[in-house]
Amino acid sequence: xxxxxxxxxxxxxxxxxxxxxxxxxxxxxxxxxxxxxxxxxxxxxxxxxxxxxxxxxxxxxxxxxxxxxxxxxxxxxxxxxxxxxxxxxxxxxxxxxxxxxxxxxxxxxxxxxxxxxxxxxxxxxxxxxxxxxxxxxxxxxxxxxxxxxxxxxxxxxxxxxxxxxxxxxxxxxxxxxxxxxxx
Length: 183
What we know:
By secondary structure, the chain is an alpha+beta fold. It has helices at 11-21, 26-37, 93-107, 167-171, and strands at 2-5, 46-52, 55-68, 73-84, 112-116, 128-129, 135-136, 147-151, 161-164. A hairpin with a 4-residue loop joins strand 3 and strand 4. The radius of gyration is 16 Å and the shape is globular.
């Protein structure tokens, strides 16, 4: 499996990965990816694909957000979304994408990477529950166990506070879980 940065010609394949991986929520996630892609600039954010035999089988995106820390706003990254085609899940593609992305971000001196994710999956990749480390989630709709963070080498202990998601997460209502009866 090859890991590389997403190229312009990968957009449809990346969209298909998210549509298939997320089932009923695939359209929301695929549209979120398209909006987040517009926020990426060189050196700020990261979109990676996993390729097998020339086919895109996985995708992960890291995008800029802010931590509202007591001293000042801190630029951080949010890992979202991560998707792997169903027939390739459980083979290490997702873990490889996350580890590779974290390595790139550490080299760029990003201090923190946040995510909303399954508490049984991400801790093996270095993520920890955010609340116990002095971080506050950006919405009450995010389950406590899902709000996770990894501290990279540029992290300093004063960097605590509230995560502020980038605007596309709010526009696509892709923050936390909504009560289906309230929709």
